[in-house]
Structure formats: structure tokens, C-alpha cells
Design a protein that fits this description.
The complex is a heterodimer. Chain A is mainly beta. In chain A, 5% of the residues lie in helices and 46% in strands. Chain A has two helices and 30 strands. In chain A, strand 27 (352-358) and strand 28 form a beta hairpin. The longest helix of chain A is centred in the first third of the chain and has 15 residues, at 2-16. The radius of gyration of chain A is 21 Å and the shape is globular. In chain B, the strands form two sheets. In chain B, strands 1, 2, 3, 4, 7 and 8 form a six-stranded antiparallel beta sheet that branches. Chain B is 32% helix and 22% strand. The chains are: A mainly beta, B alpha+beta. The A-B interface holds A 37, 64, 67, 108-109, 128-129, 161, 163, 181, 183, 185-190, 192, 223, 226, 246-248, 250, 309-310, 312-314, 341 and B 164-166, 173-176, 178-179, 181-194, 196-198.
Amino acid sequence: MHLRFLLVFWSLLGLIGCHQSHPEGTYGIYVMRSGDAREYIVRTDQLDSGRIDPLKGIPVPIPQLWAELIERDGNYYHMNRKSGYLVRHRLIDQHFTAQDSVALPDVSFIENYSWPTPDSLFLISYNRKISKLQYARVDVRTMQAQTGKLPLPLPFGPYNSMSVGFSHFRGSELFVGYTYHTVSGRPGQYTTSDTLYVSTLAYPSMRLIRTQKDTKSTYPGSVNTEQPSTFADEKGDFYFLACPGFALGNHPRKPTAIYRIKAGEATLDSTYFFNISASAIHNHAYGLWYIGKGQAIVRSERRELFKTMEDHYQVPHLEFYVVDLNQKTTRKLALPLDKGSARSCVLVDRGLVYISVNAGPDDNYIWVYNPNDQSLKKGLKIEGSVDYLLRLEKLKDASGQTSD
Amino acid sequence: MKVTKELLEKYHRGHCTPEEKTAVENWLLDDSDVDDSFPASVDEATIQQEMWAEIQQELPSSKPRRLFRWSLPGSVAAACVVVLGLGWLLYRPHTPATPQSQEISGRDYTLAAGPESKVQVTKAGIINFCGRLEIQPKKDVQLSFIEQSPEHFSFQKGETYFAFHTCQKADHEKILVIKEKSLQSLPPVAKRQLMDEWGI
């Protein structure tokens, strides 16, 4: 009788589609628990259907880590500011385990990261306390690093802080986007320059070649450990989002816009300015993901639905649009209003676009968008007392090979 | 012997003659003087801040659960000055300066000042502080901060809050009050400035 009960029970679970956490699963879903804000990672092979409870996954031992992580090939890299080490973690036997590290002197908060090659991690860090703008090149196979000064102008005149929002490698050149801030007055209060800067450096010598300025918008790129806003397409054209909205640049009179540096050209494409604020989106935006064939997804706010920065983070008001980069058109995806000012919530894999949407209790799903037929459906349901779905990543492919 | 500002400073430095030391200590012990105003030519607010800075460094290692209130009735105020003065006398020459975090536990809340921060509560219940203050309300309550330019905030029972107020003197200095779990909601520029400056 007992055995029969168990057989019936597990069969029912199979019918309902309840997924167990897969220790070697392809995808990693990183969440924040309600109440105590503890973070968990759960691995799964399936994003298209079923249900999963990430709180039965692996607890992350370091509080509020999600915004400072870089993930690649199942490795989670974190710059520990207090110890001065970049630490590599992996999920081993249901534990978030530190495996290796490298000292990065004077490196503080990570402004931006990129991968010049699959094994080479490039970091930019602005250490405001000691007025240092540093880069670090880390060979992640050996965890050896070289650090140096990034030769861009430090804050000047009325400015006492800066943000570096992108780094893009192209052959022997490195493009870096940045702007300046004045932090003063009420703690946490700041203003942003009305100018965005793009400098070109020779790589690997890091010699400054030229600097361009543009005032149509400001705050180029973002802290991409939290949410990406740049990409290169199949042709090598580089696109970045300028983000002057409240949650990033805080210069809201400027428009949110997409800029481009064309492959083979040395400077910003002066003919290209996709004004997101003036489009049907008609709001500021903060996240940008390329989904192929000249299309991207933009994650934008709804200004009339929030009053404070806390609202911006806690109230569902964010929307997803598919934008055509050439036609400069937009189409809203029929998704519930999402919450969380910054999330790494879009994953493109095998021709499909997976979008995690944090609509509220009992309404957290991975949605599946097919750009070929524009279909949109609910996929994996995220259960449990989950407050935020913070990161959605592919840790490895089905053959066990590393991702791109 | 009249207790003047200069004599008090001399006493602080441990440079008094035995006669001068006795005069100051008698003045400290004399509770017949119900007027707790300071000697002439001494700016009370300045002395308050200076004594506060000294007390911050020199109190014994056990944390006081309730801080000295400046506006208490004269006899009680004088007694507190005695305690603090004696503490100063006993510990200043010998105890190395170590930063102390302060806690105030009241009926409606618990306050904890972070490193290099300070807090006091007036008789009217206004919370004066600078630096970083952790606030844990014991019930839903509205609190007022900074006597010179009061700001009022509502607090919910069960939540933990941080309040930030720069210690540099500036006109119309505003404070930031935020739930601890909402620090993540701030834009990176703001979040990093707070984490850098106030060691979160």
C-alpha cells in the first residue's frame, strides 16, 4: 500500500510537471527570497514549461551578491572589495563554492566588464575613494591578472565621480563609454553631466587615441553586472543604450537613446540616433538585449506608475519592447508589468528568447518569445516566496560545452 | 576661583595645578547650581559638540544604553556632568582612543550609530545625528530628525532602516532615510557612494 501510494504520488508530480533542481542543469535561475532577501540559485534543463521552486536550490552565502557577479561557463566571478581579490565560484554539490582567486590591488566596484576572448576577462573599476580608474585583464584559466591605469580623464571641475558604462573590443582597438557626476547634498544625491564620452584606446597598449563627445544624451551603457545595455550584432556593429533615466543617469530631461559604432568605423555613427523616449515607448529604459536579425529587446519604465526610487524598485511598472534597429520601430510584448529596476532577465538560446518576469506573488514566470512567428507564451513557473528573479543564465549547453 | 572656559580646557589637558583641579571638580560636584548654563563666554553648542567628541573617544568599553540628555532638569543634568566629567578624568589619560558605536534604546525604537557617527535625542524627542544611523522601530511610528531643520519620516515596525547625514557642517543639510533592504533600489552611483562613505 505504501509503495503504491509513492508510485501514484511521483506519477502525479510528473503529470503536473514539477521540476526538481538539476545539479548539473543547463540554466541557472538566481532569485531573492521574500522577507529576508536571501539569494538562491537553482539549475534546470527546462525553461519552456513546468514549475520549480528556487528556494529548494543552492543558497548564496554572501548577501546581496547578485548585482556584482559575472557569470561565464558556470563560473561566477565576484570582486570582493574588502579583501581585494577577484574570486571564482562554482556550484559544486549544492554549494556555492569559492575555487580560486587573484589579487586585484586598488580595484573597487566594477563599472563594466567584457570578454575580449572567451578566457580573458576585462574589468574596469573606478575607485572613488582613492581617485583611481583602473583596468584589469584576467586570464580566467590560470587566474592571473594584470592591472593598470585606464588613461581617461578623472573627474574635473564640478565633478567628483564618474561612471564607465561600456568597453567594446574590436581588433586592436578598445572603445570605452563614460560620463561624470557630482555627488553632493543629501546623501546618495547626485547629478550627471549632460555629455557622454566615447574614447578609443589602442589595445593592448592602452594608449589613448581619440575622444568623442555627444550631448544628445548622457550616461552611456550601464553597470552590466546588474543589467546589460550594449551588444555587437552579427556584422560587428556595436550598439549601446544611453540611460539618463532616474534609475541610472538621473538626467531625465535627456532622452534614452540607442547609439551605434559601425564595424570598420573609428567613431560614433553620427547618422544613427534611435530616440527611445520619443518613440511609442515614450519612457526611459535601462536594459537592452540583442535577439538577432536586427532586432533587440528594450526594458523600459512607466513614469506614471512610480513616485520614489523605492517604488521604482518595488512596484511592477517595467515593460518589454521588441525594437527594430534599422527601421527604428517598436512593438510592445504582451507581458505583465515587471518589477525590479535592474535585472539580468533576458536570455537568447537556440533561436528563442527567454524572459523572466517578476509580476508578483504567484505570477513569476519564464516567458518564451519566438522572433520567427512573434509568439509569446508562459514557460517555466517560478514558485515559492520569491521576491525577485535576478539573473537568468545559460551555464552550459546540452553537450556540456561552455556557452559563448 | 572662577571656572572659566580656559580653565576647563586646561583641566581637559591634565595641566591644572592641584588648586585648579579642585576648583573644577567642586564645580562639577556642586548641584546647588540649578542653572546648568556654562560659564560666561562659553558657547554651549560648541562645548556640547566638543564634549561629545571627547566622550565618543573616551567612555569605557561597555556601551551606555541611554545617553546624556542636555535638556534635563538642573540637578539631574549636573549629576550627569559629574559622571561624564569623572569618566573623562579617570579614562582620558589612560585609555587609548577607540571608536565606539552608540546605541539608544527607547520605548518606540532602537538606534545604533555606525562607526565615526554620533547620535543624541533631545527632550522633545528629536533625533540629532551625523554619519550613519541604524533605526529599528518597535512599532509604527513617526520620528523627527535634526533640530536645526527638522525632517519627519514614518517607520514601520519590523523593518530596519538606515539614516545618513553628513558630519560636515553645511547649511540646510538634508538626510536620507531608507529601508535596509531598499539600498539595492538605489542607482549604482548613489548606492556605491553610500557604501564607500559609510562602510556598508
